[in-house]
Amino acid sequence: MLFEPDHYNEEGEFVVNMGPQHPSTHGVLRLKVWLDGETIKKVEPHLGYIHRSIEKMTESLSYRQFIYVTSRMDYLSAHINNQVCALVVEKALQVEVPARAQAIRVILAELTRISSHLLWFASIGLDLGGVTPFFYAFREREAINSLMDENCGARLTQNFMVPGGIMKDVLPNFQQRVKEVLKQFKDNYHEYDEILTGNVIFQNRLKGVGILTKEDAIAFGCTGPTARASGLNCDIRKLYPYDGYEKLQFDEITSTGGDCWARYEVRMAEMKQSVKIIEQLIDNIPEGEIVGNTKKVIKLPKGEFYQRVETARGELGVYIVSDGGTTPYRCKYRSPNFANLSAIPHIARGHKIGDLISIMATIDLIIPDIDR
Amino acid sequence: MTTEELKQVMTDLLPSSTFDETGEFLNVIIPSEELLPVMKTLRNREDLFFDYLFCLTCVDWKDHLMMVYFLNSRTHNHTIVIKAKITDTINPQIESLFSIWPTAELNEDEVFDLFGVKFLNHPNLRRLFLEEDWVGYPLRKNYEDEHMIEL
Q: Whole-prediction pTM value?
Protein backbone atom coordinates (compact mmCIF):
# COMPACT_ATOMS: atom_id res chain seq x y z
CA MET A 1 0.00 0.00 0.00
CA LEU A 2 2.85 2.34 0.84
CA PHE A 3 4.20 2.33 -2.70
CA GLU A 4 0.97 2.83 -4.58
CA PRO A 5 1.38 5.95 -6.68
CA ASP A 6 -1.99 7.37 -5.54
CA HIS A 7 -0.60 8.23 -2.15
CA TYR A 8 2.09 10.52 -3.52
CA ASN A 9 1.49 13.99 -4.87
CA GLU A 10 3.35 15.55 -7.82
CA GLU A 11 6.39 16.45 -5.74
CA GLY A 12 6.78 12.91 -4.44
CA GLU A 13 5.48 13.79 -0.99
CA PHE A 14 3.50 11.24 0.92
CA VAL A 15 0.24 12.60 2.32
CA VAL A 16 -1.27 11.00 5.42
CA ASN A 17 -4.12 11.88 7.73
CA MET A 18 -3.40 11.83 11.43
CA GLY A 19 -6.75 11.46 13.07
CA PRO A 20 -9.65 12.06 13.47
CA GLN A 21 -9.33 8.85 15.48
CA HIS A 22 -5.62 8.83 16.21
CA PRO A 23 -5.18 8.15 19.95
CA SER A 24 -2.62 10.90 20.48
CA THR A 25 -4.84 13.67 19.18
CA HIS A 26 -7.05 13.32 22.28
CA GLY A 27 -10.23 13.78 20.37
CA VAL A 28 -11.42 14.32 16.88
CA LEU A 29 -8.71 16.48 15.34
CA ARG A 30 -7.50 15.62 11.84
CA LEU A 31 -4.05 16.76 10.85
CA LYS A 32 -3.22 16.32 7.19
CA VAL A 33 0.53 15.77 7.06
CA TRP A 34 2.77 16.02 3.98
CA LEU A 35 5.82 13.81 4.46
CA ASP A 36 9.14 13.41 2.72
CA GLY A 37 10.23 10.05 4.08
CA GLU A 38 9.66 10.59 7.75
CA THR A 39 10.25 14.34 7.69
CA ILE A 40 7.26 16.65 7.97
CA LYS A 41 6.97 19.11 5.09
CA LYS A 42 3.61 20.64 5.90
CA VAL A 43 0.77 20.22 8.38
CA GLU A 44 -2.80 21.38 7.83
CA PRO A 45 -5.42 21.04 10.57
CA HIS A 46 -8.93 20.03 9.54
CA LEU A 47 -11.54 20.83 12.13
CA GLY A 48 -15.25 20.61 12.69
CA TYR A 49 -15.78 17.01 13.79
CA ILE A 50 -17.24 18.19 17.10
CA HIS A 51 -18.52 21.62 16.04
CA ARG A 52 -21.78 22.42 17.87
CA SER A 53 -21.94 26.14 17.09
CA ILE A 54 -21.99 27.14 20.74
CA GLU A 55 -21.80 30.80 19.70
CA LYS A 56 -25.05 30.49 17.72
CA MET A 57 -26.67 28.56 20.57
CA THR A 58 -25.70 31.30 23.01
CA GLU A 59 -27.66 33.87 21.00
CA SER A 60 -30.88 32.17 22.11
CA LEU A 61 -29.94 31.54 25.75
CA SER A 62 -30.46 33.90 28.66
CA TYR A 63 -27.58 35.33 30.67
CA ARG A 64 -28.23 32.78 33.39
CA GLN A 65 -28.22 29.84 30.99
CA PHE A 66 -25.33 30.59 28.65
CA ILE A 67 -22.76 29.99 31.41
CA TYR A 68 -23.35 26.27 31.47
CA VAL A 69 -22.89 25.62 27.77
CA THR A 70 -19.24 26.64 28.15
CA SER A 71 -18.56 23.64 30.40
CA ARG A 72 -18.66 21.60 27.22
CA MET A 73 -15.99 23.64 25.49
CA ASP A 74 -12.80 22.97 27.43
CA TYR A 75 -14.23 20.21 29.57
CA LEU A 76 -11.09 19.94 31.68
CA SER A 77 -11.32 23.61 32.69
CA ALA A 78 -15.10 23.62 32.94
CA HIS A 79 -15.13 25.60 36.16
CA ILE A 80 -12.86 28.32 34.76
CA ASN A 81 -14.93 28.56 31.57
CA ASN A 82 -18.02 29.17 33.71
CA GLN A 83 -16.08 31.78 35.64
CA VAL A 84 -15.38 33.92 32.56
CA CYS A 85 -19.08 34.03 31.68
CA ALA A 86 -20.09 34.91 35.22
CA LEU A 87 -17.41 37.61 35.29
CA VAL A 88 -18.52 39.24 32.06
CA VAL A 89 -22.09 39.53 33.32
CA GLU A 90 -20.84 40.94 36.64
CA LYS A 91 -18.65 43.43 34.81
CA ALA A 92 -21.53 44.60 32.63
CA LEU A 93 -23.94 44.94 35.55
CA GLN A 94 -21.23 46.20 37.94
CA VAL A 95 -22.23 43.65 40.56
CA GLU A 96 -20.02 43.27 43.61
CA VAL A 97 -19.10 39.61 44.21
CA PRO A 98 -18.98 38.68 47.92
CA ALA A 99 -15.51 37.82 49.24
CA ARG A 100 -16.58 34.33 50.28
CA ALA A 101 -17.79 33.51 46.78
CA GLN A 102 -14.54 34.83 45.29
CA ALA A 103 -12.40 32.70 47.59
CA ILE A 104 -14.37 29.52 46.84
CA ARG A 105 -14.29 30.30 43.13
CA VAL A 106 -10.51 30.64 43.18
CA ILE A 107 -9.98 27.47 45.24
CA LEU A 108 -12.13 25.45 42.86
CA ALA A 109 -10.50 27.07 39.83
CA GLU A 110 -7.04 26.15 41.04
CA LEU A 111 -8.16 22.60 41.84
CA THR A 112 -9.49 22.45 38.29
CA ARG A 113 -6.12 23.63 37.00
CA ILE A 114 -4.28 20.92 38.97
CA SER A 115 -6.70 18.26 37.78
CA SER A 116 -6.34 19.43 34.18
CA HIS A 117 -2.54 19.41 34.36
CA LEU A 118 -2.69 15.96 35.95
CA LEU A 119 -4.66 14.65 33.01
CA TRP A 120 -2.09 16.21 30.69
CA PHE A 121 0.68 14.49 32.67
CA ALA A 122 -1.17 11.18 32.37
CA SER A 123 -1.65 11.52 28.64
CA ILE A 124 1.86 12.71 27.80
CA GLY A 125 3.11 9.51 29.39
CA LEU A 126 0.70 7.46 27.28
CA ASP A 127 1.55 9.32 24.08
CA LEU A 128 5.26 8.74 24.50
CA GLY A 129 4.93 5.09 25.40
CA GLY A 130 4.60 4.78 29.18
CA VAL A 131 1.43 3.54 30.81
CA THR A 132 2.32 3.89 34.52
CA PRO A 133 2.17 7.74 34.78
CA PHE A 134 -1.47 7.48 33.76
CA PHE A 135 -2.34 5.51 36.89
CA TYR A 136 -0.27 7.75 39.15
CA ALA A 137 -1.96 10.91 37.88
CA PHE A 138 -5.45 9.49 37.89
CA ARG A 139 -5.07 8.51 41.54
CA GLU A 140 -4.76 12.21 42.50
CA ARG A 141 -7.24 13.36 39.88
CA GLU A 142 -9.82 10.99 41.29
CA ALA A 143 -9.49 12.66 44.71
CA ILE A 144 -10.08 16.10 43.14
CA ASN A 145 -13.03 14.84 41.10
CA SER A 146 -14.62 13.30 44.19
CA LEU A 147 -14.24 16.60 46.03
CA MET A 148 -15.94 18.40 43.12
CA ASP A 149 -18.66 15.75 43.12
CA GLU A 150 -19.41 16.29 46.82
CA ASN A 151 -19.54 20.07 46.61
CA CYS A 152 -20.72 20.88 43.10
CA GLY A 153 -22.72 17.78 42.24
CA ALA A 154 -20.71 16.83 39.18
CA ARG A 155 -17.24 15.48 38.61
CA LEU A 156 -16.30 17.15 35.36
CA THR A 157 -18.82 19.81 34.33
CA GLN A 158 -19.31 21.47 37.68
CA ASN A 159 -21.74 24.24 36.65
CA PHE A 160 -21.20 25.90 40.01
CA MET A 161 -21.27 29.54 38.92
CA VAL A 162 -24.14 31.97 38.86
CA PRO A 163 -23.83 35.64 37.90
CA GLY A 164 -22.80 37.39 41.10
CA GLY A 165 -21.35 34.45 42.99
CA ILE A 166 -21.71 30.71 43.37
CA MET A 167 -24.77 28.49 43.28
CA LYS A 168 -24.69 27.14 46.83
CA ASP A 169 -22.40 27.13 49.81
CA VAL A 170 -19.74 24.45 50.18
CA LEU A 171 -20.12 21.60 52.65
CA PRO A 172 -18.95 22.06 56.27
CA ASN A 173 -16.08 19.60 55.74
CA PHE A 174 -14.85 21.42 52.62
CA GLN A 175 -11.67 22.82 54.21
CA GLN A 176 -10.66 19.48 55.66
CA ARG A 177 -11.34 17.66 52.38
CA VAL A 178 -9.30 20.17 50.36
CA LYS A 179 -6.42 19.77 52.79
CA GLU A 180 -6.59 15.99 52.42
CA VAL A 181 -6.49 16.30 48.63
CA LEU A 182 -3.53 18.69 48.76
CA LYS A 183 -1.66 16.45 51.20
CA GLN A 184 -2.15 13.46 48.94
CA PHE A 185 -0.94 15.49 45.96
CA LYS A 186 2.15 16.82 47.75
CA ASP A 187 3.06 13.43 49.21
CA ASN A 188 2.88 11.79 45.80
CA TYR A 189 4.38 14.56 43.66
CA HIS A 190 7.92 13.13 43.96
CA GLU A 191 6.71 9.95 42.24
CA TYR A 192 5.93 11.96 39.10
CA ASP A 193 9.47 13.25 38.98
CA GLU A 194 10.87 9.78 39.57
CA ILE A 195 8.87 8.04 36.87
CA LEU A 196 8.84 10.64 34.08
CA THR A 197 10.93 13.77 34.68
CA GLY A 198 14.14 11.90 35.39
CA ASN A 199 13.67 9.37 32.59
CA VAL A 200 16.39 9.82 29.95
CA ILE A 201 14.37 8.32 27.11
CA PHE A 202 11.50 10.66 27.92
CA GLN A 203 13.82 13.68 28.13
CA ASN A 204 15.33 12.88 24.75
CA ARG A 205 11.90 12.75 23.15
CA LEU A 206 11.24 16.32 24.34
CA LYS A 207 14.49 18.28 24.51
CA GLY A 208 15.16 20.46 21.48
CA VAL A 209 11.92 19.36 19.79
CA GLY A 210 9.29 21.78 18.53
CA ILE A 211 10.96 25.07 19.38
CA LEU A 212 8.56 28.02 19.50
CA THR A 213 10.35 31.36 19.78
CA LYS A 214 8.92 34.24 21.77
CA GLU A 215 8.25 36.30 18.61
CA ASP A 216 6.36 33.40 17.03
CA ALA A 217 4.39 32.83 20.22
CA ILE A 218 3.16 36.44 20.05
CA ALA A 219 2.54 36.32 16.30
CA PHE A 220 0.48 33.12 16.54
CA GLY A 221 -1.41 34.43 19.55
CA CYS A 222 -0.26 31.60 21.83
CA THR A 223 -1.05 31.90 25.51
CA GLY A 224 -0.90 29.80 28.63
CA PRO A 225 1.91 27.38 29.49
CA THR A 226 2.70 27.04 25.77
CA ALA A 227 3.67 30.71 25.50
CA ARG A 228 5.18 30.97 28.97
CA ALA A 229 7.60 28.19 28.04
CA SER A 230 8.82 30.56 25.31
CA GLY A 231 9.51 33.32 27.81
CA LEU A 232 6.35 35.35 27.28
CA ASN A 233 4.72 36.82 30.38
CA CYS A 234 1.10 36.19 29.59
CA ASP A 235 -0.52 35.00 32.81
CA ILE A 236 -3.91 36.74 32.94
CA ARG A 237 -4.00 36.20 36.70
CA LYS A 238 -1.02 38.56 36.93
CA LEU A 239 -1.73 40.93 34.01
CA TYR A 240 -5.46 41.51 34.47
CA PRO A 241 -6.34 40.08 37.91
CA TYR A 242 -9.91 38.96 38.59
CA ASP A 243 -11.73 37.45 41.57
CA GLY A 244 -9.06 38.53 44.04
CA TYR A 245 -5.95 37.05 42.42
CA GLU A 246 -4.19 40.39 43.02
CA LYS A 247 -4.14 39.68 46.77
CA LEU A 248 -2.47 36.29 46.42
CA GLN A 249 1.21 35.45 46.36
CA PHE A 250 2.29 33.20 43.51
CA ASP A 251 4.92 33.12 40.82
CA GLU A 252 4.32 33.25 37.10
CA ILE A 253 6.32 30.30 35.80
CA THR A 254 8.25 31.07 32.64
CA SER A 255 11.04 29.32 30.81
CA THR A 256 13.21 30.42 27.92
CA GLY A 257 13.70 27.10 26.16
CA GLY A 258 10.55 27.18 24.02
CA ASP A 259 10.84 23.47 23.27
CA CYS A 260 8.65 20.58 24.40
CA TRP A 261 10.80 20.07 27.49
CA ALA A 262 10.26 23.69 28.60
CA ARG A 263 6.51 23.29 28.20
CA TYR A 264 6.70 20.13 30.30
CA GLU A 265 8.65 21.90 33.06
CA VAL A 266 6.32 24.91 33.10
CA ARG A 267 3.23 22.76 33.56
CA MET A 268 4.85 20.65 36.27
CA ALA A 269 5.86 23.79 38.20
CA GLU A 270 2.44 25.40 37.71
CA MET A 271 0.75 22.62 39.65
CA LYS A 272 2.88 23.54 42.68
CA GLN A 273 1.93 27.21 42.33
CA SER A 274 -1.75 26.26 42.30
CA VAL A 275 -1.21 24.34 45.53
CA LYS A 276 0.44 27.47 46.97
CA ILE A 277 -2.59 29.60 46.02
CA ILE A 278 -5.06 27.19 47.58
CA GLU A 279 -3.05 26.95 50.79
CA GLN A 280 -3.17 30.73 51.21
CA LEU A 281 -6.93 30.75 50.88
CA ILE A 282 -8.15 27.58 52.52
CA ASP A 283 -7.80 28.73 56.12
CA ASN A 284 -8.98 32.25 55.34
CA ILE A 285 -12.29 31.77 53.56
CA PRO A 286 -14.30 34.81 54.66
CA GLU A 287 -17.76 34.30 56.13
CA GLY A 288 -20.81 35.91 54.61
CA GLU A 289 -22.97 35.92 51.53
CA ILE A 290 -22.26 33.65 48.57
CA VAL A 291 -24.11 35.53 45.88
CA GLY A 292 -24.30 39.24 45.08
CA ASN A 293 -27.39 41.24 44.37
CA THR A 294 -28.72 40.37 40.92
CA LYS A 295 -32.17 40.40 39.39
CA LYS A 296 -33.95 37.17 38.45
CA VAL A 297 -34.12 38.14 34.78
CA ILE A 298 -30.82 39.66 33.75
CA LYS A 299 -30.68 42.30 31.06
CA LEU A 300 -27.26 43.60 30.07
CA PRO A 301 -26.97 47.28 29.14
CA LYS A 302 -26.48 48.06 25.48
CA GLY A 303 -22.83 47.81 24.56
CA GLU A 304 -19.86 45.51 24.18
CA PHE A 305 -18.05 43.64 26.93
CA TYR A 306 -14.81 41.69 26.92
CA GLN A 307 -13.55 39.59 29.80
CA ARG A 308 -10.67 37.16 30.01
CA VAL A 309 -9.44 34.53 32.42
CA GLU A 310 -6.50 32.17 32.58
CA THR A 311 -7.66 28.61 31.99
CA ALA A 312 -5.33 25.64 32.28
CA ARG A 313 -4.44 26.18 28.62
CA GLY A 314 -4.24 29.93 28.29
CA GLU A 315 -6.30 33.03 27.80
CA LEU A 316 -10.00 32.43 27.38
CA GLY A 317 -11.81 35.58 26.32
CA VAL A 318 -15.50 36.17 25.94
CA TYR A 319 -16.76 39.04 23.80
CA ILE A 320 -20.42 39.87 24.22
CA VAL A 321 -22.36 42.33 22.11
CA SER A 322 -25.58 43.26 23.85
CA ASP A 323 -28.54 45.08 22.34
CA GLY A 324 -30.11 45.60 25.75
CA GLY A 325 -32.18 42.42 25.67
CA THR A 326 -32.24 39.25 27.73
CA THR A 327 -30.04 37.27 25.34
CA PRO A 328 -26.68 38.22 23.81
CA TYR A 329 -26.81 39.71 20.31
CA ARG A 330 -23.47 38.14 19.52
CA CYS A 331 -21.13 36.09 21.66
CA LYS A 332 -17.61 35.16 20.68
CA TYR A 333 -15.26 32.91 22.62
CA ARG A 334 -11.59 33.57 22.08
CA SER A 335 -10.39 30.08 22.89
CA PRO A 336 -6.78 29.39 23.91
CA ASN A 337 -6.57 26.09 22.08
CA PHE A 338 -7.62 27.60 18.76
CA ALA A 339 -4.68 30.00 18.85
CA ASN A 340 -2.23 27.41 20.15
CA LEU A 341 -3.26 25.04 17.36
CA SER A 342 -2.27 27.57 14.71
CA ALA A 343 1.34 27.33 15.92
CA ILE A 344 1.58 23.57 15.31
CA PRO A 345 2.04 23.68 11.51
CA HIS A 346 4.83 26.21 12.00
CA ILE A 347 6.81 24.42 14.71
CA ALA A 348 6.32 20.88 13.38
CA ARG A 349 7.91 21.62 10.01
CA GLY A 350 11.21 19.79 9.55
CA HIS A 351 10.68 17.40 12.43
CA LYS A 352 10.15 13.65 12.21
CA ILE A 353 6.59 12.35 12.45
CA GLY A 354 7.28 10.87 15.89
CA ASP A 355 8.14 14.34 17.16
CA LEU A 356 4.72 15.61 16.06
CA ILE A 357 3.28 13.41 18.82
CA SER A 358 5.57 15.08 21.38
CA ILE A 359 4.60 18.52 20.11
CA MET A 360 0.89 17.82 20.26
CA ALA A 361 1.21 16.23 23.68
CA THR A 362 3.00 19.23 25.17
CA ILE A 363 0.76 21.85 23.55
CA ASP A 364 -2.12 19.97 25.16
CA LEU A 365 -5.04 20.60 22.84
CA ILE A 366 -8.66 20.07 23.82
CA ILE A 367 -10.63 19.68 20.61
CA PRO A 368 -14.16 20.73 21.73
CA ASP A 369 -12.62 24.06 22.72
CA ILE A 370 -11.21 24.52 19.21
CA ASP A 371 -14.41 23.55 17.40
CA ARG A 372 -16.82 25.11 19.89
CA MET B 1 -0.06 55.19 25.30
CA THR B 2 -3.25 56.40 26.89
CA THR B 3 -6.63 56.27 25.17
CA GLU B 4 -6.46 60.00 24.38
CA GLU B 5 -3.06 59.65 22.70
CA LEU B 6 -4.22 56.64 20.71
CA LYS B 7 -7.25 58.61 19.59
CA GLN B 8 -5.00 61.42 18.39
CA VAL B 9 -2.77 58.97 16.52
CA MET B 10 -5.74 57.37 14.79
CA THR B 11 -7.17 60.75 13.77
CA ASP B 12 -3.83 61.72 12.22
CA LEU B 13 -3.54 58.35 10.52
CA LEU B 14 -7.02 58.24 9.06
CA PRO B 15 -9.19 61.37 9.39
CA SER B 16 -12.33 59.45 8.35
CA SER B 17 -12.17 57.12 11.38
CA THR B 18 -14.86 57.43 14.03
CA PHE B 19 -14.62 56.53 17.72
CA ASP B 20 -16.77 54.75 20.23
CA GLU B 21 -15.70 54.68 23.87
CA THR B 22 -18.57 52.79 25.45
CA GLY B 23 -16.52 49.66 26.11
CA GLU B 24 -13.41 48.99 28.11
CA PHE B 25 -11.10 49.69 25.15
CA LEU B 26 -10.94 52.41 22.52
CA ASN B 27 -13.06 51.34 19.54
CA VAL B 28 -12.08 52.78 16.17
CA ILE B 29 -14.43 52.32 13.23
CA ILE B 30 -12.81 52.52 9.82
CA PRO B 31 -14.03 51.77 6.28
CA SER B 32 -13.04 48.27 5.17
CA GLU B 33 -11.01 49.54 2.18
CA GLU B 34 -8.53 51.27 4.48
CA LEU B 35 -7.90 48.22 6.67
CA LEU B 36 -4.59 46.90 5.36
CA PRO B 37 -2.53 50.16 5.34
CA VAL B 38 -3.88 51.15 8.78
CA MET B 39 -3.08 47.75 10.27
CA LYS B 40 0.41 47.77 8.73
CA THR B 41 1.14 51.10 10.40
CA LEU B 42 -0.26 49.92 13.73
CA ARG B 43 1.92 46.83 13.60
CA ASN B 44 5.16 48.39 12.41
CA ARG B 45 5.41 51.89 13.94
CA GLU B 46 7.79 51.82 16.90
CA ASP B 47 5.62 53.83 19.31
CA LEU B 48 2.49 51.80 18.51
CA PHE B 49 3.82 48.28 17.84
CA PHE B 50 0.60 46.29 18.11
CA ASP B 51 2.21 42.88 17.77
CA TYR B 52 -0.52 40.75 19.33
CA LEU B 53 -3.87 40.15 17.63
CA PHE B 54 -5.75 38.37 20.37
CA CYS B 55 -9.27 38.23 19.07
CA LEU B 56 -10.70 38.44 15.57
CA THR B 57 -14.38 38.15 14.88
CA CYS B 58 -17.33 39.55 13.00
CA VAL B 59 -20.74 40.88 14.02
CA ASP B 60 -23.77 40.86 11.73
CA TRP B 61 -25.75 44.10 12.13
CA LYS B 62 -28.24 43.10 9.39
CA ASP B 63 -27.56 46.14 7.15
CA HIS B 64 -23.80 45.79 7.41
CA LEU B 65 -21.12 43.43 8.72
CA MET B 66 -18.55 44.62 11.25
CA MET B 67 -15.16 42.95 11.44
CA VAL B 68 -13.68 43.35 14.93
CA TYR B 69 -9.95 43.13 15.63
CA PHE B 70 -8.62 43.26 19.20
CA LEU B 71 -5.00 44.42 19.19
CA ASN B 72 -2.55 44.60 22.05
CA SER B 73 1.08 45.63 22.26
CA ARG B 74 3.24 43.38 24.41
CA THR B 75 5.96 46.03 24.68
CA HIS B 76 3.84 49.14 25.40
CA ASN B 77 0.90 47.27 26.94
CA HIS B 78 -1.88 49.25 25.28
CA THR B 79 -4.99 47.83 23.66
CA ILE B 80 -7.15 49.06 20.79
CA VAL B 81 -10.15 47.63 18.98
CA ILE B 82 -10.31 48.23 15.25
CA LYS B 83 -13.66 47.73 13.57
CA ALA B 84 -13.92 47.56 9.81
CA LYS B 85 -17.34 48.22 8.38
CA ILE B 86 -18.34 46.10 5.37
CA THR B 87 -21.41 47.61 3.75
CA ASP B 88 -21.89 44.97 1.03
CA THR B 89 -23.71 42.09 2.78
CA ILE B 90 -24.44 40.15 -0.42
CA ASN B 91 -20.82 39.65 -1.41
CA PRO B 92 -18.72 40.85 1.55
CA GLN B 93 -14.98 40.99 1.14
CA ILE B 94 -12.00 42.43 2.97
CA GLU B 95 -8.20 42.16 2.91
CA SER B 96 -6.65 39.28 4.84
CA LEU B 97 -4.28 40.16 7.67
CA PHE B 98 -2.31 36.93 7.41
CA SER B 99 0.74 38.79 6.13
CA ILE B 100 0.86 40.87 9.34
CA TRP B 101 -0.27 38.40 12.02
CA PRO B 102 -0.08 34.67 11.14
CA THR B 103 -2.72 33.90 13.78
CA ALA B 104 -5.27 35.53 11.48
CA GLU B 105 -5.19 32.55 9.10
CA LEU B 106 -7.42 30.15 11.06
CA ASN B 107 -9.51 32.95 12.56
CA GLU B 108 -10.32 34.30 9.11
CA ASP B 109 -11.17 30.79 7.94
CA GLU B 110 -13.65 30.64 10.80
CA VAL B 111 -15.24 33.98 9.90
CA PHE B 112 -15.45 32.92 6.23
CA ASP B 113 -17.12 29.68 7.30
CA LEU B 114 -19.69 31.19 9.65
CA PHE B 115 -20.27 34.67 8.16
CA GLY B 116 -19.28 34.29 4.52
CA VAL B 117 -16.80 37.17 4.48
CA LYS B 118 -14.33 36.59 1.68
CA PHE B 119 -10.73 37.42 2.59
CA LEU B 120 -8.55 38.65 -0.25
CA ASN B 121 -4.98 37.34 -0.46
CA HIS B 122 -5.64 34.69 2.16
CA PRO B 123 -3.25 31.71 1.68
CA ASN B 124 -5.83 28.97 2.15
CA LEU B 125 -9.41 30.14 2.48
CA ARG B 126 -11.66 27.16 3.24
CA ARG B 127 -14.69 26.18 5.30
CA LEU B 128 -13.06 25.34 8.61
CA PHE B 129 -15.85 23.71 10.60
CA LEU B 130 -18.69 22.98 8.19
CA GLU B 131 -18.70 20.83 5.08
CA GLU B 132 -17.62 22.34 1.77
CA ASP B 133 -21.14 22.08 0.34
CA TRP B 134 -22.96 23.58 3.33
CA VAL B 135 -25.53 26.15 2.22
CA GLY B 136 -25.57 29.49 4.06
CA TYR B 137 -23.56 31.03 6.86
CA PRO B 138 -24.92 30.04 10.30
CA LEU B 139 -23.94 33.08 12.35
CA ARG B 140 -25.62 35.52 9.95
CA LYS B 141 -28.88 36.79 11.38
CA ASN B 142 -30.86 35.86 8.26
CA TYR B 143 -29.65 32.24 8.31
CA GLU B 144 -32.36 29.63 8.08
CA ASP B 145 -32.26 25.90 7.85
CA GLU B 146 -34.82 23.13 7.97
CA HIS B 147 -33.55 21.74 11.27
CA MET B 148 -34.07 24.95 13.21
CA ILE B 149 -36.80 24.74 15.85
CA GLU B 150 -38.71 27.80 17.01
CA LEU B 151 -39.07 27.75 20.81
A: 0.88
